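#lab-general

N.A. 3:47 PM
ok so I finally got the sequence cleaned up, no stray characters, all 280 residues accounted for. can someone with queue access submit it? mine expired

B.Y. 3:52 PM
send it over

N.A. 3:53 PM
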Amino acid sequence: MDDTAYDVIFQKLSSYHAYDNYPNYHIHNFYEIYLLLEGDINFYVQQSCYHVTSCSLAIINSLEPHKASNNKNAVFSRIYFHIPPSFMEKYSLANTDLSHCFTNRCVGNNNILSLTKHEEKYIIDIYNNLLQVKNSDNNNFGNKLLFDTYIIQLLIYINKLYKGQSFAAPKEYSHDVQFIIDYIDSHITENISLDILSKKLSRDKYYLSHKFKKETDTSILHYLILSRISKAKQLLQEGLNVTETCYNCGFYDYSNFITTFKKITGYTPKKYQQNFSLNR
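B.Y. 4:20 PM
back already:
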């Protein structure tokens, strides 16, 4: 079956490592549904770190830098679905926004749902149905429509779960690390450096760098860059031009902004805006 026939990518994986292609925090241009079937991981989303075990569902939107890290020397299994915004736009109705659970919340909040075995089985059954359609003959009558119907069922089901459940609470960071995260979030348009953070906290900068890396599993610089790119994506979607976006997310070098944005998202800012603007 030709994968290009479908808008949605899905897969079941079992491995020791969370990501072969994304070992560090990364950000997508699509929405991600991530079902942990078996294992014990830390799931980092923007400013939050969640301890996640089996029968848990992660919901990640296109503005949320994230990564998963295995806590044990054992294989863990998961199913993921990658759904482009265009799919949501195509099938949502005025009173049925299929992207609700992804977009109707603050970035890095309410990302993890704990499921019952019955709820987990429903999602696994949809995965198996999708796999059957994908592996069948390309010429089967109604294949593409049937595939999309299963994804719509999945999104409706998850949105209903989202509206009716409590969410897993993130782990608490130390005071120093939480201060850095909050400072980056509230001063994203300003010059931020390790020296500045060190002075704000009256701490040695190498100590802060090590502590941040230990608790968040990434560097302060990488976290800062992805936070700025996330902000840039949001501003571009809202209609700001590229120059305004550059300076409103803390980049003071236009050329560096263009290069960094394309490296992380795969698009130039202008091309991204053309493809993903909320007003297009």
